[in-house]
Design goal:
Layout: E1 10-13, E2 17-22, E3 25-30, E4 35-39, H1 41-49, H2 56-66, H3 71-87, E5 91-94
Antiparallel strand pairs: 1-5, 2-3, 3-4
Length: 99
Amino acid sequence: MNNPTEACGTLGRADGLLTADVDGELLMMSVEQGRYFNLNSVGSRIWELLAAPVAVDGLVDALTAEYDVAPDEARREVERFLGALRKRGLLVTDNASAA
């Protein structure tokens, strides 16, 4: 499998992050890691959608409905973004939900 989000079931936010909205961008701090992260408006929207368990398809559907982006481009960008979140320990998955 080339993509780590392909068969991961539902996705959600990792616990333990402090967040603040600053001028349409989201600042997040991981106390555990001692690091902070900054998300632009689209990244902030994806983070908002991750508040409830959601599959990659659900994220792509929501973003293509809200933004002027083709589904295949949205999927590539969402998967890239989710990979970055996972690498930084900010994303949790529930593989039991995978089909």
